[in-house]
Amino acid sequence: MTHDDLIIGFDRALRTLFAPAPTTRPVPGNEIGHDPLTPAERAHAAALMRVNHVGEVCAQALYQGQALACRDPSIQHALQQAADEETEHLAWTERRLAELADRKSLLNPVWYLGSLAIGICAGKLGDAWSLGFLAETERQVEAHLDSHLDELPASDRKSRAIVEQMRADEVAHAATANRLGARELPAPARLAMKLAGRVMTRTAYYL
Q1: What is the pTM of this model?
Q2: Are 67 and 79 in contact (CB under 8 A)?
Q3: Is 20 contained in some domain?
Q4: Residue 15 is assigned to a structural domain of this protein
Q5: Radius of gyration (Cα) for the chain, nearest Å?
Q6: Range of 46's domain?
Q7: Which end of the chain has the lower number of beta carbons within 10 A, N or C?
Q8: What is 133-202 written as a DSSP string?
Q9: How far is residue 105's CA from residue 95's CA, in Å, rounded to a whole number?
Q10: Is 29 contained in some domain?
Q11: Amino acid 177: pLDDT
């Protein structure tokens, strides 16, 4: 890890946490008008989108940590490409939160730092295990987004369009990791990831 890597990493962290995220693709559902939501539906949809935004903050940190520890240029490129798409997810969820008149998680710096440390540790285990961690993360995120599609109000078509496109991207990221040689994580590791994710989502729903 070079001095330049640290500077770039610090800049990425600041941009993720404090700057509006950019997107090159159109925001999914942008053509849909504002559907009427009850106050309870709006609050629930906003809380779910806050959880999704936190997930994208964590994804940025995970990918950054893994890329810092990765030695294979092709894998580094794949991680960077996935991170760029996750940046778009960050922008989409951030915009939808604003439309729903709600806020981002108050604990975003904590989520970021914790995920960065996990990403670096995963990367230190070697590229195959790091890719395995990535693939399993994306599979769990896919399941998480499926549950949100079940929970979002049927009338909230804008949020649903965003979540559906995010889900499609996560499936593609997992497929890429497997193609590059991901090793399947042992069951205890998968369970630990699931439990940690559950704590994060339940906390971010409110904070």
Answers
A1: 0.89
A2: yes
A3: no
A4: no
A5: 17
A6: 3-9+39-206
A7: N
A8: HHHHHHHHHHHHHHHHHHHS-TT-HHHHHHHHHHHHHHHHHHHHHHHTTPPPPPHHHHHHHHHHHHHHHH
A9: 14
A10: no
A11: 87
The domain total for the chain is: 1
Q: Taking the C-alpha atoms of 195, 196, 199 and 204 in order, what is their torsion angle to the nearest 10 degrees? A: -140
Spatial separation of the C-alpha atoms in residues 29 and 31, rounded to whole Å:
5
The CATH number linked to 78 is 1.20.1260.10
- Consecutive 10-residue runs of the chain (207 residues): their mean pLDDT? 57 68 86 87 96 90 83 80 83 94 93 89 86 90 94 94 94 88 90 90 92
Number of CB atoms found within 10 A of residue 66's CB? 27
Domain annotation covers residue 146: yes
Q: How confident is the model at residue 144, as a pLDDT?
A: 92
Res 72: pLDDT: 81
Written as one letter, the residue type at 81 is Q
Q: d(Cα 173, Cα 186) in Å, to the nearest integer? A: 20
CA 182 to CA 177: how far, in whole Å? 6
